[in-house]
Amino acid sequence: MIPCPMPTLRPRGTAVGLFVVALTVGCQQTREHSPSLRAAVAPPAVGAPSASTLPGLHNVVTYAPDVICGGVPEGAEGLQTLAAMGVQSIVSVDGATPDVAGAERRGMRYVHLPISYDTVTAERQQQLAQALHSLPRPIYVHCHHGKHRSAAALATAAVRAGVLTNDEALERMAVSGTAKDYQGLWQAVREASPLPQDGLRADPASFPSVSKVSGLVATMAAIDLVFDLVKQAQKAGWQAPQDHPDLVAPKETARLAQLFDDLQHDADSQALAADYQAMLQRAIAGATALDAALRASDRATADRWLEALGKGCKECHKDYRDRR
Ligand code: HEC
Question: What predicted TM-score, i.e. pTM, was given to this entire model?
C-alpha cells in the first residue's frame, strides 16, 4: 500500500486547497487512481506569460495542450501533483536516475533521455519527438531546474513533431527562463525542422526508463541536488527549512565535499585539462571549508564559502560544460 502524502502538502492558494481536499477524498476512496483526483490540479494555461509553482513542482510551463515542461518532481509530493494533473508520461532529460518505481506506483510511465547543456543532438531530437508523438499524454518533460535543458528538449521535440512552430517554441522557452548563455540550446530550437510522419513513429515500449550516463554526469547531477539542499538550508539561516524538516545542513555539506572528491577518481574527469583540475581542487577545498565552517557554527564563513562554490560551478561550466 502507498501511504497517503497529505501531511506533506501545504495549501498555497485556492486551486491547491481544492487539490488537498480532492486528494483526501482520493486517498480514502480508491487511492491514487481516482478520477476525482485526476481532475484535481489544472496544469498552467497554454500561453501563460510566466512559469507556475505547484506542490513539489517548480517552473511549470505548458507548451501545448497536455504538453508540460518543468523542474524535477520533488519526492512523493511532486509525483502526486503530476498524477493529480492526469499526467501519463514523464520524460527526464536530466542526468540523475529517475524515480521510475514512484511514478509507476501512481500509474505513470518514466522515460529517461538525458541531454547536455551544449546542444540537443539530432539523434536525441528525433527520440524526443518520437516520445512526444507516441507516449500517452498529458506528458511532463523535466530536467532538474526546468529552465534550460527540459525547455530546449521539449521545444525541439515540439517543432520536430509538428506540435509548435520554431517561433512558438522559442517563446515558450523564454517563459521557462532558459538563459541566453546556453547558445547551443537556443540554436538547436531555432534550427529544428519538422520530421516526416514516418520518422515520428516509434514503439512506446522501446524508450528507456533509465539511461546510463557517464560517471561525471551522474556525479554532477548528484552535486546539483545536494547543492540545492545546502542553499535551502542557508536561506533558512542554516537550519532545516520549514518545508524540509529533516534536512541536516552539515550532512549535506559533507556529501557535497565527498561528491567533488569522488570526481578525482572518475575517468572522464581525470581526462580533462589542467585548468579543469585546478577548478576541481578549488571546489573540493571550498566544499570542505564550507563543511568545517558549519560544524564550527561559523555561519558568516559558511556563507562566504557557499558563494565561492556557486561561482566555481559557473566558472567551470562555462568552459567545460556549456560549449560545443
Ligand atoms: C571543476 C569543474 C566543475 C565544477 C566545479 C562543477 N561542475 Fe558541474 N559539470 C562539469 C562538467 C564538465 C559537466 C558536464 C559533464 C558532461 O556533460 O559530460 C558538468 C555538468 C553539470 C550538470 C549537468 C548534469 C546532467 O544532468 O547532465 C549539473 C546540473 C552540474 N554540473 C551542477 C554543478 C553544480 C551545482 C556545481 C557547483 C556546486 C558544479 N556543477 C560544479 C564541471 C564542473
Answer: 0.82
